[in-house]
Design goal:
Distance between the termini: 76 Å
Radius of gyration: 30 Å
Largest sheet: 8 strands, mixed
CATH topology of the largest domain: Nucleotidyltransferase, domain 5
Helix content: 40-55%
CATH architecture of the largest domain: 2-Layer Sandwich
Number of strands: 22
């Protein structure tokens, strides 16, 4: 094995100490990060014939052109630093989670007299109560749907709550007590929140007893309509508990992991048990890149908990982990209490791990079948369009503007036929004045491809929304930047075929047209072609993403432009007012006292703002 001189020099001076090492390629890009109790022994093993025999090592080592390392005090510090560096550099040969977002939680701030439930990704030491976490937005939405159906708490944001003058539709259908207009006092609302907290904390037996007692009291006083409401709440709670219950006597918070690996792909499934209930079952697919199953899973587990996630009391795993002790210490430090990382061999915990393993295998089979179907679809697309390579990563670009105003571009990415929202990008047009879609597309593609060439990060297929003109722009940019190995096409919506004069038939849309380089006429795909549906999905997603950003930019200056006309309101106060009220309507409806509650707004300034909207030229309710 030929080892570069620079690497040899650094291997010679590696210390016999605990630390983290970074391997870099010839461009200085970090391609692997690892930790070691003895840096000298561990790093040298990569470059010895009888050293590290993991499969990915034989692919990685020839690409190593430089080394760096950082010394730390102990293995736990090495684990923390390794995680931070992997999140920072996202090295090619480390295990990566496809979705490294933190879990969602539900926040309830009872310092507000009439609080609502909010979804957040991070816990804060702010005096509020947090419930969860939930591994997906769908799980949070379902929980909030149940809470908002069973318990009539408010749902509107603070800006709307402060500006309401009459009850909303939720009050009319019995799903809100209308605290915004004083229909309920804080004490009664607080009792309702007590029940919401019992539900979110999983204390369902106590909640059921409480609701049953209220139902009986209402019936005893012949308040049958109220008793029926409590009966329905009780039934909803019992149904939810039954659906979420997980057999087992313990109410300990625990994460139970299982995995299934075939080839270079591993699927990990977690059973997130909170207070004896199965809260969620997130699934992660990772590329093992030559790591064996145990090492790949151990590295996954470090990445999983590297984010700001809820740390349970127990972590049950299907294989013994070599680094279980420092991992448990690190998790315990973050949790503020003991954490058990354990591979159970018998009993209830072993049954849960076996369940997770079976679920992981089943999910792998289902995902593999879908992947096989997607592979056939991509192969069909490659053949139909005459592409040079399989379009595993496709990027589609669209432009949105009105007369050149607030012009934006969008980039959406599909990996293996599935949206990869972590790689979506929005571009605000900087160099083009006026409505010139071609120039705007050129700017967007230049910005994307310049970065892609520098970072060696290019897609297999570029799709531009448009016809021959947009395709020519894309080809020109790629030629200017000497981009090779990337296919490019343009997708144009079909035009309406209008009937001949005197006909009564409605106009019918034609088939979509795909323009490809070197071909005068477009390829016309049948409307029922699966390839067309895939291209249509990615084009429509690019259009949706561009339009959403364009609308956001168009809305943003409206409230700010109103505030710009008010003397004494600079950028800081304008930002505070926008954050507090959120809309011109809410700001216009605010009283001077409510305006003065905004940080940085004095009573005098509040009076000026109020007069701006309600003076002789701006009567209340005017626009």
């Amino acid at each position: 094995m030929s080892v570069p001189t620079r690497v040899q020099e650094k291997l010679a001076v590696l210390p016999d100490a605990c630390g983290v090492y970074l391997m870099k390629d010839c461009h200085g890009k970090v391609i692997y990060v690892g930790k070691a109790v003895n840096l000298r022994a561990r790093v040298r093993s990569y470059f010895q014939a009888s050293g590290d025999n993991r499969v990915f090592v034989e692919y990685m080592v020839p690409r190593v052109a430089d080394l760096d390392w950082v010394l730390v005090a102990n293995e736990k510090e090495a684990l923390i630093l390794e995680n931070n560096l992997i999140k920072q550099f996202r090295p090619r040969f480390n295990i990566q989670l496809k979705d490294d977002k933190t879990f969602l939680s539900i926040r309830l701030d009872r310092r507000h007299p009439f609080p609502r439930l909010e979804t957040v990704r991070r816990y804060k030491e702010d005096g509020a109560s947090y419930f969860g976490p939930y591994a997906s937005a769908a799980a949070v939405r379902e929980t909030l749907r149940i809470v908002n159906t069973v318990f009539p708490i408010r749902k509107c944001p603070d800006a709307v709550f402060r500006s309401r003058t009459r009850p909303c539709l939720y009050h009319e259908i019995g799903r809100c007590l209308a605290p915004c207009v004083g229909y309920v006092d804080p004490a009664a609302y607080g009792q309702l929140l007590d029940e919401v907290e019992l539900f979110l904390r999983g204390r369902n037996r106590e909640l059921a007893e409480r609701l049953a007692a209220k139902m009986q009291r209402a019936a005893a006083t012949q308040a049958y309509e109220l008793a029926a409401k409590y009966r329905d709440q009780l039934a909803a709670v019992e149904r939810t508990v039954e659906a979420q219950s997980l057999a087992g006597p313990s109410c300990v918070d625990r994460d139970v992991f299982g995995f299934h690996q075939e080839g270079e792909t591993m699927l990990v499934q977690a059973l997130l048990v909170r207070r004896g209930r199965l809260e969620d079952v997130p699934t992660y697919t990772i590329a093992t890149r030559g790591h064996d199953a145990a090492n790949a899973f151990a590295e996954f587990l470090q990445r999983f908990y590297a984010a700001d996630r809820f740390i349970p009391r127990e972590v049950l795993v299907p294989v013994a982990l070599a680094g279980a002790a420092p991992l448990a210490d690190w998790l315990a430090e973050r949790r503020g209490g003991e954490v058990l990382v354990h591979c159970p061999q018998r009993g209830e915990k072993a049954r849960l791990v076996a369940m997770a393993m079976r679920n992981a295998e089943s999910a792998f089979r289902a995902a593999h079948a879908k992947q096989r179907d997607r592979s056939h679809l991509l192969q069909g697309l490659q053949t139909t369009l005459g592409l040079a390579q399989l379009p595993q990563r496709m990027e589609c670009y669209d432009i949105s503007n009105i007369g050149g105003a607030e012009a934006v571009g969008s980039q959406v990415t599909f990996d293996d036929g599935v949206p990869n929202k972590a790689r979506y990008r929005r571009y605000r047009i900087k160099t083009v004045r006026g409505a010139d879609d071609y120039a705007m597309m050129r700017e967007v593609l230049l910005r994307r491809l310049q970065r892609g060439v520098a970072e060696q990060d290019l897609p297999d297929l570029i799709i531009v929304d448009g016809g021959k003109g947009q395709l020519a722009v894309a080809q020109s940019v790629m030629a200017d930047l000497a981009v090779g190995g990337v296919d490019v096409i343009a997708l144009a919506k079909g035009r309406d075929r209008r009937p001949a004069s005197g006909a009564v038939r409605e106009p019918t849309p034609t088939d979509e047209r795909v323009f490809v380089p070197g071909r005068a006429e477009p390829i016309v795909l049948p409307r029922n072609a699966a390839e067309l549906h895939l291209l249509g999905r990615i084009r429509d997603e690019a259009h949706r993403f561009a339009v959403a950003y364009h609308h956001k930019l168009r809305r943003r200056p409206f409230l700010g432009s109103v505030l710009d006309r008010i003397p004494g309101i600079g950028p800081a106060r304008k930002k505070a007012l926008v954050a507090h009220f959120g809309s011109v309507r809410a700001l216009r409806a605010a009283s001077p006292q409510q305006l003065a509650e905004v940080p940085g707004i004095s009573a005098r300034q509040a009076a000026i703002i109020h007069a701006t909207f309600h003076g002789p030229g701006n009567p209340p309710g005017s626009t």
